[in-house]
Amino acid sequence: MTLEQLAAQARITYQYLSGLENGKENFTIGVLEKIADALHFPISELVTAAYHEEDALKAPHLDAKYFRRDVPLPEGLTAKHLEAASNQAMLVIHRINWHLISATGRPLQRFVQGNNFSGLVSNILCDALDANSPYKHNSHQRHSDLVNPDAKRHKGEGLEVKATIKVGKGGESHNGHGGWHLIACYQSDKAGDVRFLHLMCAALNDHRSEAPDWKYVGSQVNVATGSQRTETYVTTRSGTTKLRDGSVYIDPSIDYRRWRQERGGQPMPPWSIFFRQPENSS
Questions:
Q1: Count of domains for the chain
Q2: Which pTM does this prediction carry?
Q3: CATH, residue 19
Q4: End-to-end Cα distance, the chain
Q5: Staple partner for 146: which of 41, 131, 135, 229, CB 3.0–4.6 Å?
Q6: Beta partners for 159?
């Protein structure tokens, strides 16, 4: 829509509208209502969107140079997909908190318990991956969270997604299934913003396999609250090592040098964060 067309539909002069756009003219609520009507956009949403466009610049973003692009990923998934999805997830949480703090003075984390909040972050990241990658919501099966229906090597390649505030921590699951797992480690600040610091991705063995990457830890009871968690599996040290090897994104503030490793006699892959080339290599 040109300025002339908008001015005609809003029933104001082109010269006045041009002055508004250039910041040389003031406007009344009545004029704003006319412009909103001409754009077929509710005035409340128009104002909110205007503030969001500016405020969105303050949302956290991943730094592309900290992606480790030689790390193997599920078929069809790239570092670019992960970057776009992570940035979208952080933006969504940023915008939720922008509204929530405006209304209550408190961010979302103050209303949701820790484990439940991590589950919410996982769900938002899953939605963002669905929108920014070939991996789509899996509505037909309980496992995995996402599938790539166009994968050629492994038809319906799956990806399980979890979020945690414990950087470098292994995986946690209610079933201990094998397949690809993405663990998104994050921190949150006082304003409620979530920033992903560490993304780990690896193909893990099922807990029933001969060399399992999962172990059963039962249904734990929270001593403080008396509440009981559902059946839980956590990665073995070998499974955790696979995930740490698969650090596709890692913030330089993370000191991983003392993290333990367990490879069961298998060689360290060259993409591992622990891998060091010999000094005399070219």
A1: 2
A2: 0.79
A3: 1.10.260.40
A4: 58
A5: 135
A6: 146, 180
